[in-house]
Design a protein that fits this description.
Number of helices: 4
CATH superfamily: Beta Polymerase, domain 2
Structural class: alpha+beta
Low-confidence stretches: none
Order of helices and strands: HEEHEEEHHE
Mean pLDDT: 94
Strand order of the largest sheet: 3-4-5-2-1-6
CATH topology: Beta Polymerase, domain 2
CATH class: Alpha Beta
Largest sheet: 6 strands, mixed
Shape: globular
CATH architecture: 2-Layer Sandwich
């Protein structure tokens, strides 16, 4: 699965779980680490867990993308899924405010989902 399509699929799955503040950043021009960041906010630790587990499970089921091992806080305050070309960050709002990934990567282009 191509990077942008993978990033947008992650965004859709997070949206299906009612994630807030969904953002896909194209960081290809400003980073050598990955091509896209997907940033999503959950309103509680169980909500963060539900978002990232659904993303990982549906990518594996729907697109045969091997499940990424979640990294981050065991309490589900900030969980990272690394799919090489796409890195997914699912976090609580307080964590998102503290680390301000959007501000850190403000030179990156925002990728909007296609509207049908």
């Amino acid at each position: 699965m191509e990077g942008q399509a993978l990033a947008l699929a992650c965004r859709k799955y997070a949206d299906d779980k009612k994630a807030e503040g969904l953002l896909v950043l194209d960081v290809r021009e400003v980073s050598t680490v990955t091509d896209y960041f997907v940033i999503a906010t959950g309103n509680s630790e169980p909500h963060v867990r539900a978002i990232w587990t659904d993303i990982a499970g549906r990518l594996q089921k729907d697109h045969a993308v091997p499940s990424a091992k979640p990294e981050g806080d065991r309490r589900n305050q900030w969980v990272v899924l690394d799919y090489y070309d796409v890195i997914v960050h699912v976090m609580l709002q307080s964590v998102r405010d503290e680390y301000d990934l959007e501000g850190l990567w403000n030179d990156a282009d925002v990728v909007e989902p296609a509207v049908l």
